[in-house]
Amino acid sequence: MFQKLISYVEDIKERNHSSGAALVIIKDNKIVLEHYSGYHSNTANSRPVDESSQFNVASARKSYLGLVIAYALYEGKINSLDDLAAQYFESFDQELLGKTTIRHLVTHSHGLHETEDGTIFREFEPGEGWAYRGINILMMTELINRLYGKSFPELLEERVFRPLGFKETFWQTEPNEKLVQVVDNPNEPASYTVGLTNDGMESNLHTSAREFALWGNLHLNNGMQIVPEEVIQLATQVQNPLYKNKDLPQNGLFWYVQDTPALKSELGERVPKGSYQILGITGPTLLVIPEYNLVVAKMYNKRYNYGGNDYLHYIREFSNIVADTFFR
After folding, report:
1. The sheet that has 30-38: what strands, in order across it?
2. How far is CA 123 from CA 64, 82, 297, in A?
3. Angle, to 10 degrees, between the axis of helix 62-74 and the axis of helix 229-236?
4. Is the dihedral of CA 163, 164, 168, 172 positive or negative?
5. Is 127 left (phi over 0), alpha (psi -120 to 50) or beta?
6. Domains in the chain and their CATH numbers?
7. By 3-state DSSP, what share of the chain in percent is helix, strand and coil, each rounded to 5?
8. What is d(CA 194, CA 321) in angstroms, rounded to the nearest whole number?
9. I need a surface site. Which of 27, 88, 252, 328 has the fewest CB within 10 A?
10. CA atoms within 13 A on the CB side of 53
11. Phi/psi at 316 (nearest 5 deg)?
12. DSSP sequence for 252-285
């Protein structure tokens, strides 16, 4: 049943020069597949990938931030997604923020961008386009940390990771033998991607494929009586403004959500409505399909794993194969 998925994962691993891969599938709240292959690095004598291997999830950490933003909304620390961002970012250029709302910041529809020298400028008016940028992630991370007086990773540890029994999901600041290194250039040795801090501001979140899948299963099960159901719904339902361009992706709180299939969505057209997905530049993908009571977690360790103009094709095709495998 799973051979086509496994073959696809292995084919992409080889084609994109990832040294390791993992695939974990949860169906009806049971792990039905664990597949591990390759090594922690592209250097000799590297440790084989196994169930304890912790991959850098890169931008997939946005799903963790999204949950804490949903908490802030649920608990009234942020009054509404439609609050103007200016009232929360008083030191920011107020004219540049203009009519930008929290909703725009969490759905990639804000229109802000930053040059290499740190100059912030506007690409398009809020709500009138979609662009994947980093500035909104930094802004929302800083805001959450300020609103709660502690880092969002600390909040997650207290409220979610500890109650769930997570022991393999951390913002890493030091290398260790369980961390899978990241391949930047196939012709050069891979390296650890760790950060100086664990406040969520850096791309140093690592997790095992199993706990990545269980993170998705928490959402699939509406919080499992650990997280309020309303918090999960805020994070995983479509929250973006209505776009004139119907080809643009739909988002919850950073999750990509399947509504009406869209050409620029990272979810394939055969994935059922209400499904949602998150991914990172090093290759991790977490796909949740409520209609099939299904979670699929896929891991790689190659930066720019999907490569150039084929990026959307790889991502969409994987989700389509998953949907085909479990179609009733």
Report:
1. 30-38, 20-27, 294-300, 285-289, 276-279, 256-257
2. 27, 20, 33
3. 130
4. negative
5. left
6. 3-326 (3.40.710.10)
7. 35, 20, 50
8. 33
9. 328
10. 31
11. -65, -40
12. SSSSEE-SS--TT-SS-TTSPTT-EEEE-TTS-E
Backbone angles phi, psi at 29, to 5 degrees: 70, 15
pLDDT single digits (tens) 256-314: 999 999 999 999 999 999 999 999 999 999 999 999 999 999 999 999 866 556 788 88
Q: How far apart are the first and last CA of the chain?
A: 13
Judge contact between 195 and 204, C-beta under 8 A: yes
DSSP 89: -
Q: What residue type is 47 in one-letter code?
A: R
Q: How many CB atoms lie within 10 A of CB 3?
A: 8
Residue at token pair 């949860």: 26
Distance CA 187, CA 323 (A): 35
Amino acid at 109: S
| Nearest Cα residue to 55 out of 165, 203, 200, 209 | 209
Residue type, 73: L
- The per-residue pLDDT for range 221-240, each reduced to its tens digit, is 999 999 999 999 999 999 99
The whole-model pTM stands at 0.97
Mean pLDDT check: name the lowest of 33-47, 65-79, 308-322.
Answer: 308-322
